[in-house]
Amino acid sequence: MSANLRTAAAQLLYLPRIFGLVWATSRLYTTAWAILLVAQGLLPAAVVFLSRLIVDALVDAVGVGTSWDGVRPVLLLGGLMAGVLLLTELFHSAIEWVRTAQSELVRDRISALIHEKSISVDIAYYESAEFHDRLDRARSDANDRSLALLEGTGSLLQNGITLVAMASMLIPYGLWLPPVLLVSTLPALFVVVRFNHRFHLWWQRSTQSRRWTKYYDTMLSSSGAASELRLFNLGGHFMSAYRGIRRRLRAEQLDMVTRQSLARIFAGSTALLISGAAMAWMVWRAFLGLVTLGDLVLFYQAFNRGQGLMRSLLSNVGQIYANSMYIGDLFTFLELEPRVVDPVRPVPIPSPLRDGIAIRQVTFRYPDSEHAALKEFDLVIPAGRTVAIVGPNGAGKSTLVKLLCRFYDPEAGAIQLDGVDIRQLSVEDLRRQITVLFQFPIRYHATAAENIALGDVGAQPSEAQVQAAAESAGVDQTILRLPQGYESLLGRLFVNGTDLSGGEWQRLALARAFVRQAPIIILDEPTSFMDSWAEIEWLDRFRELARGCTVLIITHRFTTARRADEIHVMDQGRIVESGSHAELLAQDGLYARSWTAQINAGTNPPVEASAPEPGMNGQDPGKTPSEALSQANHDLGDRTAFS
Ligand code: ADP
Fold first, then answer.
1. Has residue 341 been placed in a domain?
2. Are residues 70 and 199 part of one domain?
């Protein structure tokens, strides 16, 4: 119990913070809310007091006849009572209205805080399951919990005022009556604190399990999983996994509720016994003629309602206590701090780039990973040149992109722009210089034009700029064929949405990358979705488009890589070979072996390094040019191609 109380005390420290937040969000509504609560707290006491006066006036009037003098006090008091009851109704509706307006404001404010934190924390946080637990708890609990907390506090205030008023009406009958009222509810307090604490611990412990159920639920009902689910007949598998976890969670919860109910029965019986004894004492006094009938009515109402109020008060305390534990989760989430931050005095970004990007002796490990994704990695990307990186899966290519964008900082070494360490630059300035086509770009549920313009929301690209980017990415014609052209809503999630093929989405993402007029272009697998002819045509256009820019292309395709000014072969976190396509073939190393292995695996003769157009010379006459190129485009990701 003492541990419970200690935790309770620690959790209550969050209360001032949440009240501060509520106050800052809605001062006007909060003031109105507090005034109405106090008024609502006093009215029930007025009702009890008036009922005593009415009963006594009635007793006096009984037998006097229907004379005006006898009836007048009763009528007057009755009118007063009606007024108070009307006011109660009025305040009740007013408080409902104020509470809704206030809670909607607070809800939106908390969501905004969670969203702000979600976008500002390091990407590294998203790699940790613990972060997802916290995010899940902050998102699913904190919002409603903060409002429940507010409601609990409001009820506590209102019930507290009514209780004090009721208790003070009991004092004339015996000073000891209010303490007895208090003692009668102590067992209930114990039940409330103990079980709320237990429930919260269980809730925290079971976050992962609940997230698993959410995951299975998504798998069973999302469009992304619908095809595989049907083909591999995975519905039953996921449903049974879902049921298994739910069965366990249900049993655990039911067990807790059973214990709580038993404890509640004990606490309730104790309170009943005490109130019965107090009432018997009062009736005895009425028999002795020490109190009037009106007193008896007042006592019964005050004591009975007092006990009810104490119970409500305890449940309010329980609610506040329980909810403050969840609010704790919200604040621990909001306290997360990004580690990739701006330096105290950022250096102006070198623009335009004169020397280029230098990666010097960079070693990097993902959080909680033993294995270094990049090891003493060195690479120079000269300004205005196009550099390609090829290498098997897991070589560290995408990791390099993440470090260039400063999603992570290296453990050792440095990345420099014209000799300036990127950690000396403001993160925003750095990211503004870069445009990236990620390996798995987002398919935004927005119009085609918006899907492109999202690449540079700050600059709000014009219609012409959006169309130029679409042309550069080779997606212009596809968009024009859509029902509403550039204004067509993409994705199937919303009404009137149109879907695109994987390759078309990829090109749209390319257009998004191009609309951002950045001097550094990074493309992670830009041609993976393109067929060979489309690739050739696009690569030619890209060279034009990227003139003067510093370009890094990560690719599995030789045909894409060979168009670069320099090619680097990466393996196990290091550059192992460098040169032009012809030089790399001449080196007869990993690149040349992979190239030859691919060529030998197919029937088509090699696509020569000196070929004016890739794939345009020396194809197997039995194959279409596109087939021949497809074979040359075997996935370099296969480690066997390198071994
Ligand atoms: P590539 O892009 O060349 O296929 P990556 O850069 O994605 O390779 O991965 C390099 C290495 O880092 C791999 O061993 C991979 O398992 C590991 N890795 C990639 N992403 C993460 C991550 N988020 N957390 C831990 N390890 C990762």
1. no
2. yes
Structure tokens at 125: 């946080």
Decide if 402 is inside a domain.
yes
User: Tell me, what amino acid is at 274?
Assistant: I
- Beta pairing, strands 356-365 & 412-417: antiparallel
**Of all helices (H) and strands (E), which one includes residue 364?**
strand 356-365
- Domain assignment present for residue 356? The answer is no
Residue having the nearest C-alpha atom to atom 5 of ligand 1: 396
- State the pLDDT at residue 6: 65
Claim to verify: residue 126 and residue 183 sit in the same structural domain: yes
Q: How far is the CA of 117 from the centre of ligand 1 (A)?
A: 25
Distance CA 520, CA 208 (A): 41
391 and 512 inside one domain: yes
Spatial separation of the C-alpha atoms in residues 142 and 21, rounded to whole Å: 13
Starting at the edge strand found earlier in the chain, the sheet holding 386-390 runs 434-437, 520-524, 550-554, 386-390, 566-571, 574-579
pTM: 0.73
Residue that finishes a domain, picked among 334, 368, 396: 334
Residues with CB under 6 A from ligand 1: 127, 366, 369, 373, 391, 393-399
The CATH number that applies at residue 149 is 1.20.1560.10
Closest ligand 1 atom to residue 371 Cα is: 14
Question: Which residues in the chain land under pLDDT 70?
Answer: 1-12, 64-66, 141-143, 532-533, 598-643
Q: Looking at the domain assignment, is residue 306 inside a domain?
A: yes
User: Per the structure, how many domains does the chain have?
Assistant: 2
Pocket test for ligand 1, best of 398, 401, 411, 575 (most atoms within 8 A of CB): 398
70 lies in which domain range?
Answer: 11-334
Question: Are residues 593 and 459 part of one domain?
Answer: yes
Q: Check residue 626 and give its pLDDT.
A: 36
Atom of ligand 1 nearest to the CA of 369: 25
* Distance from the alpha carbon of residue 396 to the mean position of ligand 1, in angstroms: 6
Give one DSSP letter per residue of 27-40, joined into a string. Answer: HHHHHHHHHHHHHH
